[in-house]
Amino acid sequence: MNNPEKQPGLTTLPGGLEPVAVGRRLFLRYSGAFVAGSALLAACKNEENPITVSPSPTMVDLGSGDIGILNYAYALEQLEAAFYTQVMTTPYGGMSDAERTILTDIRDHEIIHREFFKAAIPAANRIADLTPNFSAINFADRTSVLNTAKTFEDLGVSAYNGAGNLLKDVNLLLLAGKIVSVEARHAAVIRDLLNPKSADFAGDDVVTPANGLDVVRKPVQVLPAAQPFVRNTISGANLPTV
User: What is the pTM of this model?
Assistant: First the structure.
């Protein structure tokens, strides 16, 4: 990455990585704040076609310790970025202007998240590009697309919530907290698209009524749910559990 001049609103990454500029997008005018890499976003603007990757190893081991957790998040962000890129490359019939704006913004956010983790993980320890398996999704059908988006976003929020206490580096925990706050807003707006002006944006299935907290899932619960959407076999056997 280039060495941008340090300016207000930049987040410094751990390990001496370059700062990432922050910005706001139209979608977040009503859904909340987002720490975004505008430089990364500009670099990714030409990504208008479905992600194509070279064949990857059949088995992908996420690794151990903080690196393993970063690879875990990176795998999920690869999946989401690939999904939303495909959604916007082959938009379903009748997609409204509002839906197009929201889904484009989410795509851009997920690409930023993916590229952030790609930059944050040392190349020697980083997992390979995953090969998505979206054969069960009908990208021409609004219901199929939005229900899949709901699955991905709900799963992603619960995954970050469940992995946070496994990170030892407090700086990484802070950054993960910023990302999960964005993912939660994605989840809320997708749910609202499916059932507008209802309580579903923070439904009892994802927010525990007794304490108002989001669902928490550990990697052992998340990876089997994500596996059907990835051709590689992902192993989290060496991830920390406490």
Answer: 0.78
